[in-house]
Amino acid sequence: MKKFLTLIFSLVCCLCFTGCVSSFVPEGSGSGSPTQGKPEGNGTPFTVKLVADGEDYIPKDTLSAQWYNGTSLVTADFENGVASAYGLDGDYQVTLSELPKGYTYNPNVNYATNRKKDITIELLPLMHYFGAGTGWGNGACKFSETGTYAVDFTEAGQSVYCTFLPKSNGSYIFESIMDTFTNEVNPRLEYYGQNTAGWAPATPFEVCKDGGVSAAYTRNFKYTGDIDGDCINFTVRCDSRVDYPVTVYFTISYASSYSRDPVYEMVIPEQLYDKDGNLNMSPAASGSWIKCGRESGNVNHLLDGSKFALGDDGYFHYKNGEILTNSIVYADLSTFVNVQEQQGPGGTIVVSDNLKVGLYDYTLFIMGWDGLVKKYGAASNVPEKLRKYKDMKGYADTVVNGKMCAVNEELRAFLKAYSADRHLFFDGLGSAEHAGYNSSDDDQWLYFCGYYI
Q1: Distance (Å, rounded) from C-alpha 33 to C-alpha 25?
Q2: Is residue 448 part of a domain?
Q3: HEC sequence for the chain
Q4: Are 253 and 372 in contact (CB under 8 A)?
Q5: CATH code where residue 218 lies
Q6: 15 in a structural domain
Q7: What pLDDT is stored for residue 13 in this prediction?
């Protein structure tokens, strides 16, 4: 019996040590000592070849193909344009040991199996922007063609500014192709909208952090941007768990045709007139102006909606504890009255959609008929369907002290929707947050407001 147990123990030990021959690679690290896939017997090898610009590509310098199955890494050098590995069994992600000069590739789409042993990797001609993208305008990386691009990062927190101005309108896909096998760099794209080349708003409209092939750390972005007439401004950013400098690779591809012709619903001010058709002017206000979020002792500049409530007069009031005071909440409408013109490159530019929120147009709501005339350039240019609103007033016509409008429920709803649409509060990236303010989604309307005491 003892001899039998000894024999069994010996066999187990042999099997255990035999299983340790392949090089173990921690998940997503790409480290370890790879094994060479050298010929063994007459088995059929797994192979990799390269193509570039539709033709076979033969590396001029030493280059290896890599097969990774989640636990072990096998490599084979390219010889006469083909890399061959013997003795493989199962499913493998196939990558390259390094990039051929002037090219990159998508390292996340090539997989070999026992039924698909032969892999062809497409090399993508690379346009590398060294040290570019330091700001909008002349400092930005400028793209006009679809293709594959690379931008460099020398330190954490850096933004690379990019402007894409294609030759034709359409929907375009922006997708990063960072290696999920090495799992070292996590890229993201910040979309600043369609703007005049060289100018963009202070904060992004959207932040795209994923959508592409992802691993535990590396999450590739995949963003579809629609272009109809001008350009798309965006920034590329990244986090890295390896030392800088690092390079982020991404592709821009054409997806489909696109024409932007949305139908906007003109919003009518329903609480601006009383039941007899009289204009409700804002109540007179005097005293010391207290800006919401800037109250004495409010060191975090928190916008706190619990301090305000709707009164019997239809306006929001400041509360002292649970007691509603006579202090009415007013909104500074100069932000919206003046949005028709903004300073851009080369001087003043007209921005005709800055009173649009989603698919709603608040020009009439805020500025009345005079706002429509300004928007379209002349009364005769106002569309026929909107001329029925001739002589209608907007909230800007009811202000006191030059710009202050008492806030009722529908004005509060507009202020909240406008703030949300412009991402004034956006996970720490909003322009209001950059100015030091903090707010919940429900209370962000107070960013435009204050009261007199």
Answers
A1: 8
A2: yes
A3: CHHHHHHHHHHHHHHHHHCCCCCECCCCCCCCCCEECCCCCCCCCEEEEEEECCEEECCCCCCEEEEECCCEEEEEEEECCEEEECCCCCCEEEEECCCCCCEECCCCCCEECCCCCEEEEEEEEEEEECCCCCCCHHHCEEECCCEEEEEEECCCCCCEEEEECCCCCEEEEEEECCCCCCCCEEEEEEEEEEECCCCCCCCCCEEECCEEEECCCCEEEEEEEEECCCEEEEEEEEEECCCCCEEEEEEEEEEECCCCCCCCEECCCCCCECCCCCECCCCCCCCCEEECCCCCCCCCCEECHHHEEECCCCCEEEEECCEEEEEEEEEECHHHHCCCEEEECCEEEECCCCCEECCEECHHHHHHHHHHHHHHCCHHHCCHHHHHHCCCCCHHHHCECCCEEECCHHHHHHHHHHHHHCCCCCCCCCHHHHCCCEECCCCHHHHHEEEEC
A4: no
A5: 2.60.120.380
A6: no
A7: 38
Q: What is the pLDDT of residue 33?
A: 55
Domain presence at residue 362: yes
Q: Are residues 74 and 111 in the same domain?
A: yes
Residues 74 and 120 occupy one common structural domain: yes
- The reported pLDDT for the residue numbered 357 is 86
Distance of CA 12 to the CA centre of its chain: 54
Residue-wise pLDDT tens digits, 93-136: 999 999 999 999 999 999 999 999 999 999 999 988 877 888 88
Candidate from 6-20, 162-176, 435-449 with smallest mean pLDDT: 6-20
For residues 294 and 443, state if they share a domain. Answer: yes
User: Which residues on adjacent β-strands are paired with residue 225?
Assistant: 172
As a whole number, mean pLDDT of residues 217-226 equals 92
Beta bridge partners of 164: 143, 232
* Distance from the Cα of residue 309 to its chain's centroid: 36
The residue among 102, 124, 146 that closes a domain is 124
Domain count along the chain:
3
Asked whether residue 72 is domain-assigned, the answer is: yes
**Is 107 found in the same domain as 85?**
yes
Span 121-130, pLDDT tens digits:
999 999 888 7
Mapped to the 3 state alphabet, what secondary structure does 398-435 carry?
A: HCECCCEEECCHHHHHHHHHHHHHCCCCCCCCCHHHHC
Same domain (yes/no): 277, 345: yes
Domain that holds residue 52: 23-124
Same domain, 290 and 425: yes
- What mean pLDDT is predicted for residues 208-237? 89
The whole-number average pLDDT for the span 56-65 is: 92
pTM of the model: 0.52
